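thought: user wants a sequence for this fold. calling inverse folding tool.
action: design(structure=
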């Protein structure tokens, strides 16, 4: 009986690892293509123009956070809670989707008209940049929040992939064409992204067309909003942690510094995007674990896998990212290389905080006080930005990010302690993996030398060596454990 259960858990873990990996790859490819295209796009705009684009993206990100009403996690949780009521569940999904199709776009259009008419001089970027970024945000909410959460919950990986590839293909073609085949300048980047988002909205609407016939139920969607709304201060605080530094930089410095900092942040964001994508796969398993004891037991392996991939990717980006900037981008962007390591460290803290956050919000359903942790982290970040940026510029923004995300990781971990499933962390494995990543980074930085092809080879060697040593130690530990369980 025990052997059968063990095999079942291994099979479940393997299946989960596979689906998590697929979701991470799909979403990672979307962001990875954007990063791979960055050297091409960046050659068509100056650092100052790139800085203005960065501010537009900051505002768009804020709007996405606000206008989603915290419903993404609610869709996952309610989908599994309503398993015994399929008709009500479908009506709930339809209601949430219709809400996000209408309200965000209405808010953006009215809000832009008010700002353009009454407060045009208060916007630090051209009004056209503001409108395009805001429209992309509102359309993105309707096109992805409910459809993507539903597809992940249903395990419809193929359709999820197709929708993402539609966005990728149109974004690359439209943006490249507008930047190089026209004379419209940096705004072509925003128009290209908007065109891709419109295409995605049409495609996801077609995929969800069956839900359009279902009625809107205020009584069904209200509890989900009540679940999600307390997360909005948390999400706003995360936005402040991730993006407010660019607004403060714009105030004290200039668009060139914003562009340099944003490029370094984009490199670190690769880790953020990939691990959020992977987390979207594991969140589904946390939803199953609400009523499934076997799924709760399997979470130990899920956590170990997610931690391992997060730390390994962080080490790769911190070591190889600066070399990539030096080799692939124009010399005017080279100062960004010096900030990548710090920003990857901060992003790593955020990605690790997703582990206790999942247990706290999805499994335990405790969202009421989550905002206090993120608000404390955001407050530390904002205060430090105002203190450090006037004195040391871009470096101050990078240091503030590290400290802010560190506060977040500690606070969320402390809050989640009472709600974690038993023995969810395999501490020996986690410590060994973290130690290997630190050793690789320190060795690579100390021996790598100037950021050139030789440095790339040296840093890669350190990464491979650390991975082999850690894998060997963990394999030996596993072999010893198996030997102890085997009867003589």
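)
observation: tool returned 488 residues.
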């Amino acid at each position: 009986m025990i052997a059968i259960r063990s095999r079942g858990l291994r099979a479940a873990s393997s299946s989960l690892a596979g689906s998590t990996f697929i979701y991470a790859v799909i979403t990672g490819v979307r962001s990875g293509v954007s990063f791979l295209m960055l050297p091409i796009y960046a050659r068509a705009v100056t650092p100052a123009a790139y800085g203005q684009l960065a501010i537009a993206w900051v505002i768009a990100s804020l709007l996405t956070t606000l206008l989603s009403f915290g419903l993404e996690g609610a869709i996952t949780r309610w989908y599994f809670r309503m398993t015994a009521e399929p008709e009500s569940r479908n009506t709930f999904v339809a209601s949430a989707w219709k809400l996000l199709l209408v309200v965000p776009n209405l808010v953006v259009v009215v809000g832009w008209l008010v700002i353009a008419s009454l407060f045009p001089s208060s916007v630090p970027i051209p009004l056209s940049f503001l409108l395009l970024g805001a429209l992309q945000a509102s359309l993105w909410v309707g096109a992805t929040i409910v459809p993507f959460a539903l597809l992940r919950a249903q395990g419809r990986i193929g359709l999820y992939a197709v929708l993402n590839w539609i966005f990728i293909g149109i974004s690359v073609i439209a943006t490249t064409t507008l930047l190089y085949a026209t004379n419209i300048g940096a705004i072509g980047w925003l128009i290209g992204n908007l065109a891709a988002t419109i295409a995605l909205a049409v495609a996801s609407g077609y995929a969800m067309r069956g839900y359009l016939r279902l009625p809107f139920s205020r009584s069904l969607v209200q509890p989900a909003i009540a679940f999600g709304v307390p997360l909005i201060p948390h999400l706003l605080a995360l936005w402040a942690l991730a993006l407010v530094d660019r607004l403060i930089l714009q105030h004290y410095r200039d668009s060139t510094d914003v562009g340099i900092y944003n490029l370094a942040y984009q490199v670190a964001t690769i880790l953020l995007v990939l691990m959020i994508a992977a987390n979207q796969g594991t969140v589904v398993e946390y939803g199953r674990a609400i009523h499934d004891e076997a799924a709760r037991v399997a979470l130990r392996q899920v956590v170990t896998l997610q931690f391992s991939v997060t730390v390994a990717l962080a080490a790769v980006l911190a070591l190889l990212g600066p070399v990539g900037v030096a080799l692939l981008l124009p010399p005017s962007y080279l100062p960004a290389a010096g900030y990548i390591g710090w920003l990857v460290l901060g992003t790593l803290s955020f990605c690790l905080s997703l582990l206790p956050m999942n247990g706290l919000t999805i499994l335990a359903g405790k969202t009421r006080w989550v905002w206090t942790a993120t608000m404390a982290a955001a407050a530390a970040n904002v205060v430090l930005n105002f203190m450090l940026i006037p004195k040391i510029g871009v470096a101050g923004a990078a240091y503030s990010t590290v400290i802010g995300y560190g506060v977040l990781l500690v606070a969320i971990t402390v809050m989640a302690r009472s709600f974690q499933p038993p023995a969810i962390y395999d501490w020996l494995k986690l410590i060994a993996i973290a130690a290997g990543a630190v050793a690789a980074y320190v060795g690579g930085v100390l021996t790598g030398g100037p950021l050139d092809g030789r440095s790339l080879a040296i840093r890669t060697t350190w990464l491979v060596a650390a991975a082999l040593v850690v894998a060997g130690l963990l394999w030996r530990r596993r072999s010893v454990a198996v030997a102890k369980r085997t009867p003589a």
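thought: summarizing for user.
answer: Here is the designed sequence. Residues 2-42 form the longest helix (41 residues).
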